[in-house]
Amino acid sequence: MTQAITVNSRSYRLSIAPTIVICIDGCEQDYINQAVQAGQAPFLAKLTGIGTVLTGDCVIPSFTNPNNLSIVTGAPPSVHGICGNFFFDQDTQKEVLMNDAKYLRAPTILAELAKAGQLVAVVTAKDKLRSLLGHQLKGICFSAEKADQVNIEEHGIENILARVDMPMPSVYSAELSEFVFAAGLSLLVNERPDFMYLSTTDYIQHKHAPGTPQANTFYAMMDNYFQRFHDAGAILAITADHGMNAKTDAVGRPNIVFLQDLLDIRYGAKGVRVLLPITDPYVVHHGALGSYATVYLRSSVEQADVIAFLTGIAGIECVLTRAQAADRFELPEDRIGDLIVLAERLTVLGTAAEEHDLSGLAVPLRSHGGVSEQKVPLIFNRKLSGFSIPDRLRNFDIIDIALNHLT
Ligand code: ZN
Ligand code: ZN
Known about the structure:
Blueprint: E1 4-7, E2 10-13, E3 19-24, H1 29-37, H2 42-50, E4 52-57, H3 64-73, H4 77-80, E5 86-89, E6 94-97, H5 109-115, E7 120-124, H6 130-133, E8 140-143, H7 152-155, H8 160-163, H9 174-190, E9 195-199, H10 203-207, H11 213-231, E10 235-240, E11 245-246, E12 256-258, H12 259-267, E13 272-275, E14 292-297, H13 303-311, E15 316-321, H14 322-329, E16 339-343, E17 348-350, E18 366-367, E19 375-380, H15 398-404
Helix pairs in contact: 1-11, 9-11
This protein binds zinc ion (2 copies).
């Protein structure tokens, strides 16, 4: 008899072989395609034969935290509550950072697997995700960013830096992600967790387009680890939190719509507040610019007029009311604005020009956040078994497929 757990109304079988779910941050599908075509990802190239390669939709906003939380809860943000890095609290009139687990409204599959007796390990690149992913998890959970501070009481393991044959990586580096895989391999070989979740950072994808030498080298590094996980007998399930696109014109200048500036001119400085939920403590590589914004209206401002005004701006793809956005993108109504604004594929949204420090953008801007970054891969090193692919596959179906529907 196979044991199973139920989490957020979905049922999951306990893992019977070490299962590794990998979230490649910012993995536009063309990165894999280009690395495969260049002969630099031989393991991934084999998976159309020995495994399964599918495409699904991530959640909107196509940002890191909402999608990582969707993947580990198997549910959209309307269920788990994390719909960005920030929301605006109408009661306190303050912008609130949502990196803390107290904002999480649903249990994770990770914590429930551990409660059912499985050994669960989580390794993230950046520390900002650790407290959310590790919420109520009795197991191993640490970040590469703070690998030098890992201890038994807090992280369920120790001496990880000594075990991984790599120097302590910088937070802005490809090595931060490489460390995640090196640590994952060490855990797989030594502790052999029943279930592991590995989550990288999109530092490379923000800087380098698919098929560039730097991108191909990064994917070759990951491909090598995937092969080693496979050789060690692991079930692999690989997806992404979101895609990535250039947000520039033909000569690499960023296409930015500074919403707060435009709205201040039309409605006055106190009429409308723009909040960018991509804003976080690590903004150097994207200048806090993405293709998704939330807008809060003061009572004197007429919503229909703002919608008409914003919709008419070049580069804006769509403007939705709170109810429309909550319905279409399965978002928690109390944590989004009066309006949600999405930019077209080549455009990002800013607040006021003076709020964005673009001096760190050494290369043409690449970012995400919109519907144009919604397509992500779902890749497995096993064939499907008894699974009919739904019309709309989601990245947060990946644990269901990994535990319930592979040979
Ligand atoms: Zn991301
Ligand atoms: Zn990013």
